[in-house]
Structures are given as C-alpha cells and as structure tokens.
Design goal:
Length: 282
C-alpha cells in the first residue's frame, strides 16, 4: 500500500482515480532526490496493486515545476586526472539512468497518466509530462526546455518522447533557443489538448475526463495504451499482428457482455479492476 506521507507529493485515491499532487509549491516543485525516489514508488504501487484506473498529476504554487533541483549537480566534479573523470562519468551515467527510470514508470503504468499543468513547466518537467498520456494547461502556462540555458542537453526523456507529440521543427526550435512556449501555441501544435482560463476550471475538466476513463473497462483502456504506444514504435504490420495476439489472450467476453447489458438496461457498467501484479518472483 501507499505510504501516508511523502516529502514531495500528496496522494488521494477516490472513485478509482489516483490524484498525485506535487506539494512543494513554495520551492517551485523542484525535483529533489526525494522526488526521484517517491514518484516511481507511488506510480508503481498504484499500478502493481491496481489501486486506481487512471492517474492525474497536478501541482501547487506558482509553477507546475521548475525542473531539476540544482543541488543534484553539486555532488562532484569531472576535473582531475583521467581515471577520476572516467569514474565520475560512469557515476553520472548511472545516476541519469536511475532518474530516467522514474519517468519511465509513468509510461509503463497500465493505466493512463493525465497531466494538469499551470505556470512554468520547465526543464525536467518537460521530460515528466512527455512521459504521460494526455496534457492540459491553464492560459498562463509556459513550457521551456531549460537545459540549453544552463549549458546542458536534456537527458531524461524530452527528445525520445516530445517529438512524438509535436513537430520536429518545434522540438528543435525550443531546444536550440531555450525559449518559452506559451499555452496557446502549445495547444496549436498539439502538446496539450486544451487550455483553460483558471486552475479550477482545468481541474474540473481533467477530473471529469478521469472519471469518464475510470468508468470504462480498465483492461480495455490498458489495451488501448499498450497498442497506441506499441504502434508509435513499430510498423503497422507489426502492430496489427500484436493487436491480434493481445485480443486473443486478453479479450474478456464477460466484460463485453456486461457492457452490452449495462447499455440495454441504461445503467453504469460494473467492471472488475485490473489484476494485482507481483513485484517479486514467485
């Protein structure tokens, strides 16, 4: 089960919706060591224990997140002799892989992950939202690949994921310049599905969509996520073949019967939750 308290997040699960809220608004929700440890723990627990059918991630304070806490970069130096530099480089690569795995948990979760953004979505926050399924924002929101502005190349997921949602030309412009992408243009190029005047209006809309998703058959929704992600990375022929294999093994006639009966009887369908998974070998 989930812990009762976290340093960086509040978590509420109600009506089969898990709402994860970044709660360090006074610190612009920068991504500290605790953040990188807590986020995958929360998401993977929700997934493995089938605690919800959809995950919503939002934030508090002025900005959604200002990205990586710069203290993460102050633990060592790559100066010194050749051996020291190679040791530090190896350690840095390992640290990056662990950080990348934190956001991989969002993409790997069986249930959809929805992002409600406001204020600045900066640096590592771009990596974060790119690993989710759907994004919305408020009208004052801006998005910024900040790494270029601090002499870095984004390395936690921006490049393999962001260009799946927006044109490559925009990925390059944002990356090369470090400029801010305003909310209206983010909607225009497809980064977000919609823009809302206020945070309250956005959360009402996003939670409404989350409730609609949670009302659907969770195994069918999982199948949609798996197939969309698989089709993104494979040929049409391979994806069609995989869909056939998936439905041959995962299609549940009893769930379909419940869907038909609920529609005929003009009631909400009652579907079983996703199966709980083992996180250790038997």
């Amino acid at each position: 089960m989930l812990k009762k308290t976290y340093e960086c997040f509040d978590v509420e699960i109600e009506d089969k919706i898990a709402h994860i809220v970044m709660k360090r608004g006074d610190a612009m929700n920068t991504m500290t060591r605790a953040f990188w440890n807590e986020l995958p723990e929360i998401v993977r627990t929700i997934d493995m224990e089938a605690l919800a059918r959809v995950i919503v991630i939002s934030s508090t304070g002025k900005h959604f997140s200002a990205g990586m806490d710069l203290a993460n970069f102050s633990n060592g130096s790559v100066t010194g002799d050749s051996h020291d530099r190679h040791v530090m480089a190896e350690k840095f690569r390992n640290d990056i892989r662990q950080i990348q795995s934190s956001f991989n948990a969002l993409e790997e979760a069986r249930m959809p992950v929805l992002f409600a953004c406001h204020g600045g979505v900066i640096g590592g926050a771009i990596d974060m939202i790119s690993a989710g399924d759907i994004r919305w924002c408020t009208r004052e929101t801006f998005f910024c690949i900040q790494e270029t502005n601090i002499a870095m190349t984004a390395d936690v997921g921006t490049y393999p994921r962001l260009q799946r949602y927006i044109p490559e030309g925009w990925v390059k412009q944002l990356s090369y310049t470090g400029e801010r992408l305003p909310a209206a243009r983010a909607r225009e190029i497809g980064l977000v599905n919609d823009v809302y005047d206020t945070h309250e209006e956005m959360m009402e809309a996003v939670m409404g969509i989350a409730r609609e998703i949670a009302s659907k058959n969770p195994l069918a929704v999982t199948g949609c996520k798996v197939m969309i992600n698989y089709g993104r990375d494979h040929s049409t022929a391979d994806t069609l073949d995989y869909i056939g294999v998936w439905n041959a093994s995962m299609l549940a006639p009893s769930h379909m019967q419940e869907a038909f009966e609920a529609r005929m009887e003009k009631r909400d369908a009652d579907y079983p939750d996703l199966a709980k998974l083992r996180d250790t070998p038997m």
